[in-house]
Amino acid sequence: AKGSLAGGISSSSRLTSTGPHPYPLYMSSGSGARIRDVDGNEYIDYLISYGSAILGHAHPSLTAGLTEVLTRGTMFGTCNVPEVELAELITDMVPCAELVRFANSGSEAVQGAVRAARGHTGRTKILKFEGHYHGWSDTLAVSNRPDETEAGPYGAPRAVPHSPGIPAGVVDDVVVCPWNDPEALHAVLDAHRGEFAAVICEPIVANNACVMPLPGYLERLREAATAHGAVLIFDEVCTGFRTGPGGAQSLFGVRPDIAVYSKALGGGLPIAAFAGVREVMETLASGRVKHGGTYNASPLCATSALITLTALADPAVTRRIEEAGLRIAEAIRRAAHDHRIPCAVQGVGAMFQAVFTPDGAPVHRYRDTFRIHRRRYNTLRHELLRRGVHCNAYGLACWFVPAVVTGDELAQTCEAIDGAFAA
Ligand code: PMP
């Protein structure tokens, strides 16, 4: 919106946050892979509601199914059928899932998984990794990026500030360890022998430059967690049902004890789950570990998830997502090469990020993310918006590819990418 706020929306908004850079975009409608803003501009969408609307916007099956639930009534507080069917589908799709518990958001589901691990082991300490994001809860929102703490100064009152020179440290009951570094992992585990309830990670670091695990690293993590009697938790909020029907654990062939899901699970509505091996999850069933929530797996959200997962259970759907993403990633690589701008595209087809490192080399370790030119990514995003392509505003998070993006839309996206790099 030139010179004025989008659609005349007042700047005296009562919201406590502002829109993303470079200017607020107010969206008014969406259909398939496309969204429209209040000024009538259209964009092909690779943010898709932070990765949630994996089947695209206003998917006809979801619209019909959800309208039906709303018309019938959204009663909960007793057992509900979609919740049970959804749990069965998740246990069919996810290798580690023997028992499932639902929540409303990824943050809550992570907390539930951590509680289950603590209840199971009788220990309290959690090992997490530098730059991995597990939601906004006070304990796990620990960042050791000196310029940001996800919990904020009041959210984590006992947080000890870290610096890149001091890679690992203890904050509350959380020990932060460098990622993709087996020696550091063993040093941290040995220093806290017998103390960890859980080791938690994002198998693909979706919230920090889409860093991939180095070959063999997840296997070593699995072995180390077992050897130390800690519950291994994969936070699959981003990778779950996106990188294939079985998520990252199928992609890499490494089975955690518990996996956490949200985003793609709900197809755009708020629902989350943690699912894992019976032995650990039974701490919840026995009531030894408490977890609850009024809206957990409400019939509306459980129906949305059921419709979405039924579609994603077909491997052809996630294969299509992967192939579409690889095409875009290749277009970025080619444009960066042609226009001589150092840039690496990392991740997988279904979720990836363009990172502007000084030499164009990919990033494997957290400390290398400090070398990423984030303003350059913002410029790319701005130029893409001008050409009708919408992606994440935050240069360290990732692009999420919708299942419904068409061949024409992909061609348009590739052309926009070339134009944006040229500009
Ligand atoms: N874990 C990961 C890997 C995430 O990406 C997110 C959200 N970006 C969360 C947890 C938290 O989920 P929510 O925002 O639904 O609380």
Automatic annotation (TrEMBL):
Keyword annotations from UniProtKB, A to Z: Isomerase, Porphyrin biosynthesis, Pyridoxal phosphate
Swiss-Prot/TrEMBL cofactor(s): pyridoxal 5'-phosphate
Reaction equations catalysed: (S)-4-amino-5-oxopentanoate = 5-aminolevulinate
EC numbers for this chain: 5.4.3.8
Listed PROSITE patterns: AA_TRANSFER_CLASS_3
GO biological process, one term: porphyrin-containing compound biosynthetic process
Residues forming coiled coils: none
Gene Ontology MF terms: glutamate-1-semialdehyde 2,1-aminomutase activity; pyridoxal phosphate binding; transaminase activity
Pathways per UniProt: Porphyrin-containing compound metabolism; protoporphyrin-IX biosynthesis; 5-aminolevulinate from L-glutamyl-tRNA(Glu): step 2/2
Cleavable signal peptide: none
Pfam family, one: Aminotran_3
Family named by the database record: Belongs to the class-III pyridoxal-phosphate-dependent aminotransferase family. HemL subfamily.
Protein name, entry field: glutamate-1-semialdehyde 2,1-aminomutase
Organism: Streptomyces inusitatus
